[in-house]
Amino acid sequence: LADSISMTFKDAKDAESAVQAQVVSKEEVGEGKYKFQFVIVKASPAMLVTVFSHTTPIHVTTIRVNPSKAQAKNSEADSLAEVKVHFPFRLSLLLRDEFRNLALASEAAIAITAEGCNLAKSDCRVVIEEGPTLYVVFTPRWSGEVALTLAVNGELLVERKITVQPLESWTKDNCSEWVRALGWVDSALRDVATQLAAEFLSQNVTGAKIQGGLLDTGALHFAFKIEELENAKRLADVFK
Question: How confident is the model over 98-146, as pLDDT tens digits?
């Protein structure tokens, strides 16, 4: 009689299409009771399950189907191949399970190693934002090359070299963009950073000029009109 029992699975977001389910086992356990085990290959917050006897529906229920553990072979990673020194590098991750469902965004599943350009282990962070995407972020303080490896639940997903361009490569637009971004990172410098970003553009400040010592504390105070010496010193210390 177990062969007369069947089930259908439909995703609440796509109720018209049947969801594939793999039968693991089915058995009669006595007294008219049957035990079925299925592997459902699509995650869903509200999967509609209908049980049939022959062609007659005899039970309908809704279950939550969570994704299984993320696997590297099905996950995705994307980043630029290079970044400018002192600018944040960001690699985006989309974790998927063995059935290519979007896996739960979990920092615990990620192991990162970033070596080179004076990076410390603590400089690499995993950022989880709304939605399924995670980001790996670090800010190199030296130019050169960063060797980046990333594993998902012990399986290698990323192994690549990131080129870090030197300060001399910065255009005036890069300089303005960088100091404006610094203001968002350090709220105490926000007003100063907005002012300085405009000054960098008007005075044609480039990375080569900064490398030559243009942004010492005195220059920031007098030439770039940063009135608070403490703020000027904090900005100058970035390039030491």
Answer: 999 998 878 888 999 999 999 988 889 888 876 678 899 998 989 999 9
Query: How many Å apart are CA 140 and CA 156, to the nearest integer?
Result: 23
The Cα-based distances of 122 to 11, 56, 85, 238 in angstroms read 41, 60, 18, 18
Q: pTM for the full model?
A: 0.74
DSSP symbol at 19: P
Q: Which residue type is seen at 205?
A: V
Strands 21-30 and 110-115: unpaired
Contact 151, 129 (CB under 8 A): no
- The tokens of 83 are what? 């970044």
Question: In the numeric block, which tokens belong to residue 211?
Answer: 């490398």
Give yes or no for a contact between 211 and 199, defined as CB atoms under 8 angstroms apart.
no
Residues 111 and 124 sit within 8 Å (Cβ to Cβ): no
- DSSP calls for 178-216: HHHHHHHH-GGGHHHHHHHHHHHHHTT--HHHHHTTTTS
pLDDT 10s digits, 74-94: 999 999 999 999 888 999 999
CA gap 103, 145 in Å, rounded: 31
